[in-house]
């Protein structure tokens, strides 16, 4: 049976509860928002030294995503960008958002020994997609 949420409930006033629910939603998906088969490609793209080429590669990969993933990602990153814009109030920079959402949205299918390395790239990918949102998602 489908659960009905009462968003007027006082528990939803705490932004940490809302963020936790959002992160849990993405963590509980059968596959991450960035599908497993794209993980290595995104990691390779973020390693590119030239910034313009790196952005272009990420944009190309994002455009190849299944439509529901792309649409969800575009809305989510647009929302996270608004959060980062209020960094002076909420202390959430693009870097902080990368740390919080990177491992939730993007992870390898099989965890290997290089988890710390993966985490760095996961964070950097989310951070780049936020800071270069218009170049990546723009028409």
TrEMBL record:
This is RHG15 protein. Residues 1-137 form the Rho-GAP domain. Keywords: Cytoplasm, GTPase activation, Membrane. One of its GO terms (biological process) is signal transduction. GO terms for cellular component: cytoplasm; membrane. One of its GO terms (molecular function) is GTPase activator activity. PROSITE patterns: RHOGAP. The gene is Arhgap15. It is found in: Cytoplasm; Membrane. It is a peripheral membrane protein.
